[in-house]
Design a protein that fits this description.
- The complex is a heterodimer of chains A (about 325) and B (about 250).
- The longest helix of chain A has 17 residues.
- Chain A is an alpha/beta fold and about 325 residues long.
- Chain A has a seven-stranded parallel beta sheet, sandwiched between helices. A five-stranded parallel beta sheet of chain A has the order 12-11-13-14-15.
- Chain A contains nine helices and 15 strands.
- Chain B has one domain: Rossmann fold, CATH 3.40.50.
- Chain B is built from six helices and 13 strands.
- In chain B, the strands form two sheets. Chain B has a nine-stranded mixed beta sheet, sandwiched between helices.
- Classes of the chains: A alpha/beta (about 325), B alpha/beta (about 250).
- At the A-B interface, helix 3, helix 4, strand 5, strand 6 and strand 7 of A face helix 3, helix 4, strand 7, strand 8 and strand 9 of B.
- The structure holds flavin-adenine dinucleotide.
- Chain B: Pfam families: ETF (PF01012).
- Chain B: Belongs to the ETF beta-subunit/FixA family.
Chain lengths: ~325, ~250
């Protein structure tokens, strides 16, 4: 009864959401009286993988096949399934990311496992049932699902658990091979294009997000959003109409039809708070709204608010952050 | 090219979510159901590709009970050619995927499209399950889909960027924006939809692998704390000292 954690890496580093998942996996393993092994996908350095010990992982498996650097659905599925069989994993934990969801769903069929995505808490194992709380109805509710299969797969929502860092603890890194063939790479990407990220912070993983809506009036004013984001080490985002008219790129659009984010801090500037926008941001821990209309619906979902003009308020906020040092 | 587009029937986005008193079921009373917004991208793109090729068919598939038929008719009005309803309440993603895979196998579809997830269950699972059940590639989530004969070129979203993926039919793709501009039905479409075939078939396969024990609502927000615009800087102090998020 071991726990297998899927750890995503890029440019040699373990992704932030995977550090969260590693912690979650180690805690599930402790609950079940076993240890957590990780299988790393993507490009990783051995030193960074060993550091997963800080999150409570005891062993890390890594296949250095170079074609695994980019996401290939079939190859990743086979790699993780092979590791799960080797480790006799009864519980497999992934991030609820685009990779985690794509692979987790294929794996659930291949391994005959029950799957819960979008998990927001550690599972409960009362009364012999294995119950996972997950987000549903676009952040407007939770559902507690019973995973009835012998094997269980959980995809954990980003920012819903905190990564722990127990300094000095290391995991044993073992090389691993799933004997992948050319056929496993038939759906390999022909090209990978990375977007420019504000300050190098990935929006889906960001701890803090500064977001602008139509109230920003035009792309020429985005410097105000970027200045505050930079001062706060935050990612930038926008509402749908803003990306529809190309003031900002599509990958910054949050909401029901855009990216879902759940940062610790979401600052909405000149955004009305339409329900479709809220659907993508309402599980943020703290929401700040700046809007000149005191009746803007967003204030109902906010923790802090300023009724005022963004052009006046944003520079003051940026200055105040800089003062904090 | 034979397209199979899977649509799910979901509560309208603006719905206030409530549950039955035992919290075991979603309270449908007075709720308007719509085609899942993500599925509209899949449907419209399939119709566009069929039109561009000048041949082919678009079949819509829904796993649901008879009350979903108005939305199936809406999909026909948007431009699908025919429809299949698997007559069963969707139990979980695995159950739904089994139904889709069975229909896909039977009908020999080349391209299976669906939305990235449903806005009620938020599973983000069915695409991969169907691909695995059929032993064909899945591209999820796809932001762009072009076809050239049997070869498809897709843009797949990855965190921080995109992958360009080329696959040959058959394949599954789960769609998201900005793939296309979803269409709305026009009068002519609504009229012709009434006469398009809608086949009802029984469910197949194994029971669900997950069960909902209970639903819950998030704790109510405390209410907004307003800071006067003149003292905007005060907000930053509150975020550090009170909310502890910076
Ligand atoms: C099916 C569907 C899916 C959708 N999906 C999404 C989605 O994923 N994401 C999304 O964001 N939207 C989505 N929408 C659109 C959504 O309904 C709203 O139209 C959109 O969120 C509004 O964006 P906005 O708040 O930026 O613009 P507006 O509604 O125009 O609001 C602008 C706000 O800025 C304020 N303002 C103006 N000037 C200033 C100023 N100088 N200082 C301060 N405040 C100012 C105004 O008071 C107003 O509240 C969707 C809609 C549909 C129908």
């Amino acid at each position: 009864m071991s726990v297998l954690v899927v750890v995503e890496c890029a440019d040699g580093e373990v992704k932030k959401s995977s550090l969260e998942v590693a912690t979650y996996g180690a805690e599930v393993a402790a609950m079940l009286g076993t240890t957590a092994t990780a299988i790393a996908v993507g490009e990783a350095t051995e030193a960074n993988l060993a550091k997963l010990g800080e999150q409570g992982i005891t062993k890390v498996l890594y296949d250095a096949e170079p074609r695994l650097k980019d996401f290939v659905n079939n190859a990743y599925t086979k790699l993780i399934a092979t590791a799960a069989e080797q480790e006799q994993a009864k519980v497999i934990i992934l991030a609820n990311s685009n990779i985690g969801a794509a692979v987790g769903s294929r794996l659930s069929v291949r391994l005959k496992a029950s799957l819960a995505t979008n998990a927001v808490e550690l599972p409960k194992t009362d009364n012999g049932q294995f119950v996972v709380r997950r987000g549903a109805f676009s952040g407007k509710a939770f559902s507690d699902v019973v995973l009835s299969g012998e094997r269980k797969i959980i995809a954990v929502k980003k920012n819903s658990t905190e990564a722990k860092h127990e300094a000095g603890k290391t995991a044993e890194v073992q090389s691993f091979t799933a004997q992948l063939t050319d056929a496993d790479f038939a759906d390999a990407p022909t090209q990978v294009v990375m977007q420019d990220q504000a300050g190098g912070i990935l929006l889906p993983e960001a701890d803090r997000v500064v977001s602008g809506g139509r109230g920003m009036k035009g792309p020429e004013n985005w410097g105000l959003i970027e200045d505050l984001a930079k001062a706060l080490h935050a990612a930038t985002a926008c509402s749908k109409p803003v990306s529809d008219v190309d003031w900002r790129p599509h990958h910054e659009h949050v909401g029901q039809t855009g990216i879902t984010v759940s940062p610790n801090l979401y600052i909405a500037c000149g955004i009305s708070g339409a329900i479709q926008h809220l659907a993508g941001v309402n599980s943020s821990k703290v929401i700040v709204v700046i809007n000149k209309d005191p009746e803007a619906p967003f204030f109902k979902a906010a923790d802090y608010g300023i009724v005022g003009d963004v052009f006046d308020v944003l520079p003051k906020l940026t200055a105040a952050v800089k003062e904090l040092g | 090219m034979k397209f199979l587009v899977c649509i799910s029937n979901v509560p309208d986005t603006t719905t206030k979510i409530t549950f039955t008193p035992d919290n075991k079921e979603f309270n449908k009373a007075g709720v308007q159901f719509v085609i899942n917004p993500w599925d509209e991208y899949a449907l419209t793109r399939a119709i566009e590709l069929k039109e561009a090729a000048g041949s082919g068919t678009v079949t819509v598939l829904n796993v649901g009970e008879a009350d979903t038929e108005p939305n199936i008719r809406k999909a026909l009005a948007i431009g699908a050619d025919d429809a299949i309803r698997v007559n069963a309440a969707p139990q979980d993603a695995f159950f739904v995927a089994e139904q889709i895979a069975a229909v896909a196998k039977e009908g020999g579809y080349d391209v299976i499209l669906m939305g990235k997830e449903s806005i009620d269950y938020n599973g983000f699972q069915v695409h991969g399950m169907v691909g695995e059940m059929l032993g064909i590639p899945t591209v999820a989530p796809a932001m762009k889909l072009d076809m050239n004969g049997n070869t498809a070129t897709l843009e797949r979203e990855i965190e921080g960027g995109k992958e360009i993926v080329t696959v040959t039919t058959p394949f599954v793709a789960s769609c998201q924006q900005p793939m296309c501009e979803p269409r709305i039905p026009n009068m002519r479409g609504i009229m012709t939809a009434r006469t398009k075939p809608l086949k009802v078939v029984p469910p197949v396969g194994e029971p669900a692998r997950t069960q909902v024990a209970e639903y819950a609502l998030p704790p109510k927000k405390q209410g907004v704390k307003l800071i006067p615009a003149e003292n905007a800087g005060e907000l930053i102090k509150l975020l550090r000292n009170e909310a502890k998020v910076i």
